[in-house]
Amino acid sequence: MTTDDPTFAAHYPRSPYFQDPTALTDKAIEKAIRHISEKSADQREFLIEKIDGSIAIIKARLDGNDTALVAALAAAGKAAEKQTENFTAILDESKRGSTKQIDALNEKIDDLKERMSVGDGRNNGISSSVAMVIAVIATAAAVLLVVCSAHTTPANSMQHVLYTPAAYVHMI
C-alpha cells in the first residue's frame, strides 16, 4: 500500500496537521538557499572590502617605494657625477705629471746621446791610433822575422823546396 492508493486514505485519514512531506522539503530547501545566498552575499561584500583595502595599502606602499626609489636613483646619479668629475681631475693631474716625467727622460736621453757621440769620437780616435801602432809593430816583427830567418838558414837546406804542378803529379 502506498500513499497514492485510495484504500490507504480510507484506512488512514489525514489529520488537519498533516502536511505533504515534499512541500515541506521544498520549503526547507528554499529557505536554506535564501539563507546561504544571504550569507555568501555578506561574505562576498566582506571579501571585496578586504581586497580593496589591501589593494589601497599595497598602492600606498608602492607609491612610497617609488618615491624612495626615485630619490635613491637621483642621489646615486649625483654621486656618480661627482665621482666622474673627481676621476677626470685625477686623470688630468696624472697626465700632466706623466708628461713632465717623459719630458725629463727625453732630456736625459738627449744628453746621453750627446755624451756618447763625443765619447764615440774619442774612442774612434783612440781605436784608430791603437790599430795603427799594432800594425806597425806587426810589420816590424814580420820584417825582423824574415831578416832573422834569412841569416840562420843555410842556402842549400831542404826547407826551401819549390813544388811545381809536375811534382804533384808524381805524388798521386
SSE order and pairing:
Layout: H1 6-11, H2 21-152, H3 165-171
* Terminal Cα span: 160 Å
**Structural class by SSE content:** mainly alpha
Percent of residues in helices comes to: over 70%
Number of DSSP strand runs: 0
Beta-strand content estimate = under 5%
Question: Unreliable stretches, pLDDT < 50, 5 or more residues?
Answer: none
Radius of gyration: 65 Å
Provide a short characterization of the protein structure:
The chain is mainly α and about 170 residues long. It is built from three helices and no strands.
Textual characterization of the structure:
- The protein is mainly α and 172 residues long.
- It has a domain of 117 residues.
- The chain is 84% helix and 0% strand.
- The protein contains three helices and no strands.
- It is rod-shaped and about 185 Å long.
- The relative contact order is 0.02.
- The model has no long low-confidence stretch (mean pLDDT 77).
